[in-house]
Every structure is written in C-alpha cells, then in structure tokens.
Amino acid sequence: GIPTMNTTSPTIQHGIEIIESPALLQQRMLQARAKGQRIAFVPTMGYLHEGHVSLLRAGRARGDLLVLSIFVNPMQFGASEDLSRYPRDLDGDLAKAATAGTDLAFCPQPEAMYPVGFQTRVEVTEVQKGLCGDYRPGHFAGVATVVLKLINLVQPHVLLLGEKDYQQLQVIRRMVRDLALPVEVLGCPLIRDHDGVALSSRNAYLSPSEREQARSLSQALFAARAAFAAGERRRDALLDVARSVLAAQPALRLEYLELRDASDLTPPPATLNDPVVLLIAGYIGRTRLIDNLL
Ligand code: AMP
C-alpha cells in the first residue's frame, strides 16, 4: 500500500517502522541505545538498488537495529541540478529494504530537516576540493551537513557508506575524525550491473541508447586496470589508456578523469607506488554519472 506519513506516531510498512519526525527519531534511538542495542545506519536518497541493498546487508550483519534514511537532501543540489526530478518510489524502497532486514526507515520532509532559520554549514575544506567538488560547488558542504545532522538524530554505532561516491566517503571519514564523532565509518564496495555500469539511482534517467553509451565510463576504468595489472605504473600512461577508450565514445561529455591517492585523494607521483583510485565523471545526455576503480 501507499505509506501514510504521520508526524506524531510511527507507522509500519513492509514490516519496517517508519518515522518522519526528527525529534521522534532521536527519542526512539536514545531508547534503543539505553536498551544496549547496537545501531547500524545507512543514509540514502532513496530509489534503492542493489548497491543500497548491499549496504543494508552489511549493516544487518553489524547491528541489532538497522536504520535506513531516505531523504533527497536539497542542500546538496545546485540550483541547476536535478533535485525536482530526482526519482522517488517510497513503497518500492521499503519493499527492497525489507528484504535486507531493515528495522526502521527515517523519511523526513525537507522542512523538518531545514526548519525556518536553519543556517549551519559543515565544510571539510580540503577533501571537498577538486573532482566533483569543482563541478558541484557547495555539494559536499550539503552532504557533510546533512550526514552530521543524521548522525546526531540516529546516534549510530556504525555508518555504512558506498565506495561508489568515493570523494563523499573521504569527506565523511575526515569529518568524523576531525569532529571526534563517536561512530565507525564502514566503506562498502561499489556494486555494478551485469555490463559493468555502476548502479545508480540516476541510471533511471537513461534511455536505452544512453544506457549503452554509459558503459564507456567503466570500460575506460577497466582498460586502465588491465594495463596496471600488466605492470604499467606510469600515471600518465594509465590515463592515456583510459582516455583512448573514451575517445571511441563521443556521447560522453567528460568532466574529469583523474588518478588520486586512494586514502587521502592527493595527486599521485608520476610513477605509482601507493594504492590509487581512478575517478571519472561526465554527462550522457542530461544525466551526470560518476564511477571509480581502485
Ligand atoms: P545515494 O542514495 O545515491 O545518496 O547513495 C546512498 C549510499 O549508497 C551512499 O553511501 C552511496 O555511496 C551508496 N551507493 C550508491 N550506489 C552504490 C553502488 N553502486 N554500490 C555501492 N554503494 C552505492
């Protein structure tokens, strides 16, 4: 059925307790902590796919109470971005979340998270620079601010995030260390579709032909990985291998293709010694896609 939201008392849908009110959630989680329950938390923007479900499964194995949040956070979208058309399917999300053993879903309205007068912003000043940060000004401040607020509401012992959003994961890791937040951050592997394309809620925007074209991102990364596996350690030679794959797919409007240190995202030396991540972002039609490979 269609979930009916209630700001004063929780409802149950697909066996999941649904809470819309931040104050009610915080109170509910304080009680869970008082009972000694270990809390695992997976924040999302909804329109769940197997990538999200993999985080929920990892959380299920690490907590007594598995909490999911579904919130399309206006603060992390730029004025010209896709906030108004971001895909939503609350009933489908709850059905998928139930298969992974989710106990509770927090589904707040934007006005409840950002009431009149809200003015606080969290900036992770260095990690948010470069890569997506250069193309989405204010994005990571929006992410850091909402994740800090969600952590304060849910009070989780463990926070599960995907490596799909690699820079986001590093921003949150840095914030948690810098502000001594009492939560363990667990990064989970990027989940791909059968054809190698990284699963993303935004893939729903793609037409069948665009979906074909979207394969170029992961194919470029795979080609570089093959060269690396064959012994290539020169940074620029690896980037050239990836670029040659992209040259064959002009439909991709590339934003960036960059090699970075896997732990702190600093630029690597000309000859690689430490673990690196190859990150890519670009547009297929109107859809912005990102991918990365360690
Ligand atoms: P989103 O709903 O896009 O904000 O994503 C919510 C969480 O799911 C973030 O921690 C993402 O990194 C993670 N996630 C999204 N897509 C994938 C994927 N394909 N594999 C693994 N994690 C993912």
Please explain how this structure is put together.
With 294 residues, the chain is an alpha/beta fold. The chain contains ten helices and ten strands. The radius of gyration is 20 Å and the shape is globular. The model has no long low-confidence stretch (mean pLDDT 96). Residues 44-45, 51-52, 54-55, 161-162, 164-165, 188, 190-191, 198-201 line the site of adenosine monophosphate.
From the structure above, extract its key features.
alpha/beta, 7-stranded mixed β-sheet, 3-stranded antiparallel β-sheet, 20% strand, globular, binds adenosine monophosphate
C-alpha-based Rg, rounded: 20 Å
Across the major sheet, the strand order is: 1-2-5-4-3-6-7
Query: Pairing-aware structural class of the strands and helices?
Result: alpha/beta
Largest sheet: 7 strands, mixed
Element string (H = helix, E = strand): EEHEHEHEHHHEHEHHHEEE
Low-confidence stretches: none
Note the total helix count. 10
Mean pLDDT: 96
Note the gap between the termini: 41 Å
Q: Got a strand count?
A: 10
User: Beta fraction of the residues?
Assistant: 15-25%
